[in-house]
Amino acid sequence: MTEQKERELYFWLRLIREFEGRVSALDRQGKIQGGVYSGKGQEAVVVGVCHDLRPDDWIFPLHRDLGAFLAKGADPNRLMAQIFGKRDGFSKGKDSFLHGGDFSRCIFGSTSMLGSTLPVAVGTAYKFRIGKEDRVAIAFFGEGASSRGDVHEAMNFAGIYKLPVVFLCENNFYAYSTPNELQFAVEDVADRAVGYGFKGEVCPGNDLHSVMKAARKAVDRARSGGGPTFLECKTYRYHGHSEHDRATYRSAEELITWESRDPIERWEVYLEKRKYDIAAIREETGTKVKKIVDDAVAFAEASPHPEGPEAMEDLYATPITEG
Amino acid sequence: MPVTYIQAINQAMHEEMARDENVMLLGEDVGVLGGAFKATEGLHEKFGSERVVDTPISETLIIGAGVGLAIQGMRPILEMQFIDFISCGFDQIVNMAATLRYRHGGQTACPIVIRGPCGAGVHGGLFHSQNPEAWFFHVPGLKIVAPSTAYDAKGLLKAAVRDDDPVIYLEHKFLYRRIKEDLPEEEYVVPIGKAALRREGKDISVITYGPPMHAAVKAAKDMASEIDIEVIDLRTLLPYDWKTIRESVKKTGKALIIHEARRTGGIGGEIAARIAEDLFEHLDGPVMRLASKDTHNAFAGPMEEYIIPNQEKVTEAVRKLAAY
Ligand SMILES: Cc1ncc(C[n+]2csc(CCOP(=O)(O)OP(=O)(O)O)c2C)c(N)n1
């Protein structure tokens, strides 16, 4: 990896953390309506998976993947406006958070129904296959969502047709308050891939190197006609399920253990080992990401609220006219 | 040569797939078998297994994958082997497909058609004879069509395929082989959103769709010396053609809505309310409904007959309304 690339990756990790941190702060100030699901702690997964994708590869993020939007190139200003429910958001205020995707960046907006984007990702991958396009679709989901029928149906179909899709499971050990031992009886969710006829891989999700390596392998396999991969990244969310959840169901020790595996600090240690001036890099990056996020907030605040009647727009592609 | 309703559906798919290579078909047994009812006969042979896809038994997958294909520029037709199974893909329809354009602020469309055999009258029992339109009638972002003639079956399916919005296409299996007519040689489409005036009359407006349309027209002919019935075939249920209903009810002053779907929570209630709200001063009697009884479509012949509307019940309802 070149020095420039290593620094770039550091920038993405920091930008995502700064952006999410600001969203959480704005939420505490009561400036954001609706749910905020912080992905703090999971940055290495989204960066590791998204940074090497091509612009025309598609991602299907879930509620905690704000970072995937950024890493895939979504405009931070519009993303913040989206979170504010303003007219310049991807939804033009129709919905908030990650329910509006950015088609210009090949990012699909999710619904709130966990796992529901997987069949859509698989349909997209089917098109890539029949169109003989060497593009891939990445479907993100939590280990909790992996219990849904949608997930099973999508993987089964992808297995049959060896579709160019990566099923990216972010295993952060809790689905809201429910721990994994109450979600499934397997240790690794990736084991389920066997039942669909493709490979399951497990990787430490807080280690950017590992995620990048595993993701590259899965993406290359998909792109070259080798079919789907179930890639499970073991990671951890620092915050509660949403900002309103104090996560009293987990222990302080557990949190401390995971904080000692922080993906950003880990990358800093690596950069240090490479003998870069980490103090300077840290400061320079800090200034840069803070400015981007400041600008995004200013943009979002200045963006107009939609007018009431705009609620009737964008419902149909061929509008209905009343007689 | 006369063409049956189901042949008309088959023709529409043949023509649309030949016209536009982005049109494709996904469903259970739609390929080599040609569909459980043969609606997709010949398509696999002609267009190959990449465009005519036999799927696992996965309604959620069929509809969700259809959305994924649609955002990549395809125009998938998604077959439910029986429309009853559409409930297994409910979330993908109401939350995924119906909201897609809206929550993306107009960045995309969702040109999918979900079609499948609906309806009673063939002893399908509880799970093979449902009329699910009311489940979806409540959902903005969807369109629902329900042809009653072979001409419309073909023309509306072609329109549905070309439409950029998600369309639920309800084909009535009772009509599959009972209805036959000569179709034009040349290409045509039946626009979504327009009702058909099947018969002009000045005494009573019967607003209907699907098999009861045929019962209503027959009743109108039989009763012609007594009561002059106007029959409106809605064809499109969402959006329904209010203009045609309004003009007709203004003329006749009496409205009877007939559908095979059950009465409570059915779309007839919505149309009745709209007539009562907007046309009160034109009315000459109560807005009435004839629909299936509020129960499941029972299997045994006498029970099924008891539940669904037929010509006799239409005649009775018309007389009752005419008496006001
Ligand atoms: C179908 C469905 N059921 C329930 C919920 C409510 N819900 C939202 S997030 C969540 C937990 C999700 O856990 P997981 O998939 O592991 O993702 P994580 O939040 O841990 O990232 C639940 C139960 C939902 N959104 N959708």
Write the layout of secondary structure elements.
The complex is a heterodimer of chains A (323) and B (324).
Chain A (H helix, E strand, L loop, with lengths): L2 H26 L14 H8 L7 E3 L5 H6 L4 H9 L32 H14 L6 E6 L6 H13 L3 E7 L2 E2 L2 E2 L19 E6 L3 H16 L5 E6 L17 H8 L3 H11 L4 H25 L21
Parallel strand pairs in A: 1-2, 2-3, 3-7, 6-7
Antiparallel strand pairs in A: 4-5
Helix pairs in contact in A: 1-2, 1-9, 1-10, 2-7, 4-10, 5-6
Chain B lengths: L2 E2 H15 L3 E5 L15 H5 L4 E3 L4 H13 L3 E5 L10 H14 L9 E6 L14 H5 L5 E3 L4 H13 L4 E6 L7 E2 L14 E4 L4 E5 L2 H12 L6 E5 L2 E3 L3 H11 L2 E8 L4 H12 L9 E5 L8 H7 L3 H12 L2
Helix pairs in contact in B: 1-6, 3-4, 7-11
Bound molecules: thiamine diphosphate.
Describe the structure.
The complex is a heterodimer of chains A (323) and B (324). In chain A, 42% of the residues lie in helices and 10% in strands. Chain A contains ten helices and seven strands. In chain A, the strands form two sheets. In chain A, strands 1-2-3-7-6 form a five-stranded parallel sheet, sandwiched between helices. A two-stranded antiparallel sheet of chain A has the order 4-5. Chain A starts with a helix and ends in a 21-residue tail after the last helix. The model of chain A has no long low-confidence stretch (mean pLDDT 96). Chain B is of the alpha/beta class and 324 residues long. Helix content of chain B is 37%, strand content 19%. Chain B has helices at residues 5-19, 43-47, 59-71, 90-103, 133-137, 150-162, 211-222, 242-252, 267-278, 301-307, 311-322; strands at 3-4, 23-27, 52-54, 75-79, 113-118, 143-145, 167-172, 180-181, 196-199, 204-208, 229-233, 236-238, 255-262, 288-292. In chain B, the strands form three sheets. Chain B has a seven-stranded mixed sheet with strand order 3-2-4-5-7-6-12, with helices on both faces. In chain B, strands 9-11-10-13-14 form a five-stranded mixed sheet, with helices on both faces. A two-stranded antiparallel sheet of chain B has the order 1-8. In chain B, helix 6 (150-162) links the parallel strand 6 (143-145) and strand 7 (167-172). The longest helix of chain B is centred in the N-terminal third of the chain and has 15 residues, at 5-19. The radius of gyration of chain B is 19 Å and the shape is globular. The N and C termini of chain B lie far apart (45 Å). The mean pLDDT of chain B is 97. Chains A and B meet through helix 5 and helix 6 of A and helix 3, helix 4 and helix 8 of B. The complex binds thiamine diphosphate. Thiamine diphosphate (TPP) binds next to strand 4 of chain A. Thiamine diphosphate (TPP) is lined by residues 64, 112-114, 142-145, 170, 172, 174-176, 241 of chain A.
